[in-house]
Amino acid sequence: MSYILVIAAVLLLLNTYPLIVSEDMMFRSKETTLQSSVSVMVYSLAGLDQLDEENVAAAIAGVEETGLSRILVTDNAGRVLYDTRETGNAVGEYAVYTEIVQALLGNDAFTSEYRSGAFRSRAASPVLYHNQIIGAVYAYEYDTEQAALLEGLQSNLLRLSAVIGVGVLLLSALLSRALTRKIEELLLAIRQVREGAYSHRAEIRGRDEIAQIGQEFNSLTDRLQTTESARRRFVSDASHELKTPLAAIRLLTDSILQTEDIDRETAREFVSDIGAEAERLSRITEDLLRLTRLDSGVLEPPAVVEGMPVLEKVMRMMSLVAQEKGVDLTYEAAGACTVLATRDEIYQVIYNLTDNAVKYTAAPGAAQVSLRREGGWVVLVVSDNGVGIPEEDIPRIFERFYRVDKARSRAAGGTGLGLSIVSDTVCRRGGTVEAANRPGGGAVFTVRWPWREGGEGA
Ligand code: ADP
Asked: What domains, with CATH codes, occur in the chain?
């Protein structure tokens, strides 16, 4: 519609402006030719001290213009002395045309109008004798020839406009249909995806803006689909993880209730198993809550934190666990390992990695932790000489609930969420985590945080 309006405005301009300009040009050419004809006649009357019918007729006869429809000569009172018109000849009458009145007042007068297919032009000039106005010459021209030219131009323009108008209408109908079809396809895709059909894609051909929006929409839907399937997997994995300890608790309580005369020792054993399962449940829920907080993006405001004291705190706690398991846990740390994060985050990362190193290393084994600064990074390396990780599993171990060996992880009290918490925590602060196997056996995890010059709180 807007295109059609613009084109209509252009066509209107095309149909009026050239006509106005050519009409104006014609008026101007009429003015010059008519006035020069009048001048010639005025000139022929020059030298006469008084005008009368005879001397005017004699003077004019030689210079009378043929193309004019009427020539009038009046005396200074406006009485007609000479008139070329045969029927309705006005000789002897008073001619009170505006132009003649103007001429008798001493001015050259000209008017022209274009009406019903003809130009009607009138010009008049005074006749002077010794600076005295002794009469006026008036010429009238009725021209249909030039008017026909103008009309020809007008009808040509109209025809041209009609052709352009029809062309534009057809073209805009075609274009708008193509455009509407694409928009409809896009709308359909948006509605389908909104209703949950995440596999639906908009199929828009071409390279125009709508096609580009379609492609952007498709890649947005790709991401949505990935996120949605990750969410579904997460929910189903989480429910499964929660179901297992709950089922065990249920089984244990049923056994206690159903066994008559249960001896104290067995009951104690069952209750302690229930306790262990409850602890597992609380570990899983804690980890889930931690991940949800990370997902929501609402993080505690970070500060510049020195890593060494945090590492020492984890080591004090973990060395007892390692000693009990028969794993030799050693660490080294240099100062000035300052990063922009929170103490809890750094604690969680070091704890989870060290806990894994001890968990997945059989006695007698060894685990090393080191924290140092390398250029613009603070690097934490946790390595062990345990079971290691099969190469094909390395890319997946940071996924939620992913475990290489489910039974081993469960037996060791793992939730399958430790590494995803590490990776999310570190990435949120602009860092990276990598996992690899050591050539001699065992795994090595490398965390890099961007180094921040030490300040308060360090
Ligand atoms: P989990 O609670 O099962 O330890 P994580 O997310 O911490 O879960 O680790 C995911 C999996 O990665 C573990 O189940 C284990 O198979 C593997 N893994 C993690 N750390 C080590 C390690 N130091 N050595 C060998 N395998 C490891």
From this structure: 2-151 (3.30.450.20), 209-293 (1.10.287.130), 301-450 (3.30.565.10)
